[in-house]
Amino acid sequence: MKVARSFVLWVMFLLFPALCSAQMFKDASEARLSNGLKVIMLENHKSPIISFQVWYRVGARNEKTGKTGLAHMLEHMMFKGTSKVSGEEFIRRIYELGGEQNASTSHDSTGYFETLVSDRIGAPIDLESDRMSNLVLRESDFRTERMVVLEERRMRVDDNPQSFLVEQLEAAAFQSQPYHWPVIGWAQDIERLTIEDVKAFYSTYYNPANTFVVVTGDFKKQALLPKMEKAFGKIPAGAPAQQYFIQDPPQTGERRVIVERPAQVKSLVVAFHVPNLRSRDSYVLEVIKAILAEGKTSRFYDHLVRGKERVIEANVDYSLATRDPGLFYISVSVLPDKDLGEIEQAIYDELELLKKAPVGFREMQKAKNQLEADFVFDQESIFSLAQKLAQYETALDWASIGAYVPSIRSVGPQEIQRVASIYFTAQNRNIGILIPTGPPVNLPTDAAPQPAGGGMKGRSIRLRASDVRNEVIP
Fold first, then answer.
1. Which domain does 201 fall in, by range?
2. What is the pLDDT of residues 266-318, one digit of tens each?
């Protein structure tokens, strides 16, 4: 009986992620207000909380050369108040209701969020509809905020050697795609932005035709939609902005970027152009990501971190839910006495192994189970549920999220070999190398990491595109 019971529990563990994910989004629905504004809703009555999120289909990808950072700048200016409500009152009103508010800008979109008790849902509806159409953009506020953004760039990128490396790598990897420039913008571009630029960007993109709202949590859509229509429905729809699908032409040779900056350790990033969720291959890449770097039984951890002790940390970052195709990033932080060339070759050896030898059943199932579990546990809050729906809606449509788990489960060993052979090639790879020129400027000399046998305790370094692309205001 004990053996049978253990088997049942193990089967339940394997099926739990898929069952949860199947239930998680099945009750999501959408509606259109009279002006065309899309409202995506997912009721969840487990706790009396709602997350209200307004997403504009505009980000750094909608900017122009010489005016980078404009989407992020407008995000900051959205907190400066309207003709009805000052910026200070906006924030105070949410906090007085026990709620939280924030915003973020990426290459693909800009989002504004409020999370609070469900019986106060009227507050974010009124506040967000007000600043969608009545924002007051003052020259004095703009000049102050431009200095804030320049300082933010200095702290996030210029004084962060790993972020600076990723920024330089992406600038080399992308040529025709607007992912070429950073979300926060180039410093010179930020300095030349004007209040007129911000006003034009606001009037062009901040309207119902370029917006969708996501609401998750403890509400009834029959009661929500009339409130939404009253507040948002009266706003003129505006014209939808042209959203081109932009893809770089096939890369015809390796691109290599070497950055010399004050840093604690050497870093290496290898990035390959890959498709997004518009392609079946994106789900195969997800499984490859898990095989290479998911957990302490992954190949990179076993062969690079624990096995031969070559690196401090090895990571893979890939996002399939992007508007345009992105990159598959492999990043490592190198131990001081190790040779970069040997480590780079070790990474290529692991990728070649994916092409030549089929992944075994047990390793494949472990990777799939980890991805499914991550997919479920990442959505354990109503806020993250709303963000996931918004991410897929921006990339393709929110309903496409339902394909994730079935697509992951159907990936086979031959697909992994095929996809690895197509994308992980020398012609398609971009390499970024960080060479330390001394300790970081904000790190005392005596705090530099110790050599390998001396118990290195430097902070964990995780290089991710999202760390550079997503700017969240405090």
1. 33-232
2. 999 999 999 999 999 999 999 999 999 998 889 999 889 987 778 899 999 99
Look at the block and give the residue holding tokens 């060479």: 435
**351 and 446, same domain (yes or no):** yes
Name the strand (E) or helix (H) holding 215.
strand 211-217
Mean pLDDT within 340-354: 95
Q: pTM score > 0.70 for this model?
A: yes
- Residues 261, 192, single domain; the answer is no
- 54 with 111, same domain: the answer is yes
Beta strands in 34-171 (DSSP E): 38-43, 49-56, 100-105, 110-117
In a domain, 238, yes or no: no
Is 141 a domain residue?
yes
In the block, tokens 């004050």 appear at 262
Q: How many CA atoms lie within 13 A of 339 on its CB side?
A: 4
CB 465 within 8 A of CB 166: yes
- How many residues are recorded in the chain? 474
Q: What is the mean pLDDT of the chain?
A: 89
| Euclidean distance between CA atoms 64 and 392, whole angstroms | 25
SS (H, E, C) 166-209: HHHHHHHHCCCCHHHCCCCCCHHHHHHCCHHHHHHHHHHHCCHH
CA quadruple 151, 467, 422, 345: dihedral sign: positive
CATH number where 53 lies: 3.30.830.10
Distance CA 431, CA 255 (A): 6
Question: How far is residue 167's CA from residue 56's CA, in Å, rounded to a whole number?
Answer: 24
Nearest alpha carbon to residue 211 among 39, 387, 399, 449: 39
Tell whether 159 and 282 lie within a shared domain: no
pLDDT tier, 368 (very low <50, low <70, confident <90, very high otherwise): very high
In this structure, what token pair is assigned to residue 146? Answer: 């431009």
Residue 196 and residue 206: Cα distance in Å, rounded? 15
